[in-house]
Automatic annotation (TrEMBL):
Pfam families: PLDc_2. The gene is HaOG206780. GO terms for molecular function: RNA endonuclease activity producing 5'-phosphomonoesters, hydrolytic mechanism. Residues 73-202 form the Phospholipase D-like domain. Belongs to the phospholipase D family. MitoPLD/Zucchini subfamily. Keywords: Hydrolase, Lipid degradation, Lipid metabolism. This is Mitochondrial cardiolipin hydrolase. One of its GO terms (cellular component) is mitochondrion. One of its GO terms (biological process) is piRNA processing.
């Protein structure tokens, strides 16, 4: 083989190797992007007394309904932050789920109604014991919101912020004895409106005391 032919063959091989490498990098990057692509959340969880059968769930030691299982599924999703605005909160499974997030390093903030904060079975004591910040405001007007925001303050591009809101209080009666609804959505416009409301109340309300 002449020197010229050898040079041409070497050039072709190097060119092929370069093109192969560039193509591989492109396809790998595209695959990662597709894998990390955030799937929008649009779901409504309905709670109906006497309609649902109970089932085993990894989120509870007790048998729970499919609706409760879906609620706990979403409450286990936050990676960085969880902001909760709840009129009444007494359910043990939900409290345990939130505390697990706290132990994993998720930053949690809670706003409660002042009159209901220390009602029978309220979870506020367990939250305070773990130094989770809780706020309220003494007023004749009820803090009647029932919503929470997941990962609103996260800068992680792989995380999808979402909202949970509806008629549902976090109580056994609401979860197992009422007809209730809980909307779960990642729609930016809706999530942002709730975020603004939470931040407004967080400034307006004060750290909880007896």
């Amino acid at each position: 083989m002449s020197l010229k032919s050898y040079s041409q063959t070497l050039f072709l091989l190097l060119s092929l190797a370069f093109v192969t490498r560039v193509t591989y990098n492109y396809l790998t990057k595209k695959k990662k992007q597709e894998k990390c692509k955030k799937k929008e959340i649009q779901e409504v969880i309905m709670f109906s007394y006497g309609v649902e059968e109970v089932k085993k769930s990894k989120y509870s030691r007790c048998m729970i309904t499919k609706s409760m299982d879906r609620l706990l599924y979403y409450l286990n999703q936050p990676r960085h932050t969880l902001d909760i605005c709840m009129y009444v909160w007494t359910n043990m499974d939900i409290t345990n789920a939130v505390l697990k997030l706290h132990y994993r390093g998720v930053k949690i903030r809670v706003i409660l109604d002042a009159d209901m904060a220390f009602s029978s079975g309220s979870s506020v004591r367990r939250l305070e014991k773990q130094r989770i910040p809780v706020r309220w405001m003494k007023s004749s007007n009820l803090m009647h919101h029932k919503f929470c925001l997941a990962d609103m303050l996260s800068e992680d591009p792989s995380v999808l912020p979402f909202l949970m809101a509806g008629s549902l209080n976090w109580t056994n009666q609401a979860l197992c004895g009422n007809f209730e609804d809980c909307l779960v959505t990642s729609q930016k416009e809706l999530v942002e409106q709730y975020r603004r409301e939470f931040e407004r109340l967080w400034i307006l309300f004060k750290p909880i005391v007896d």
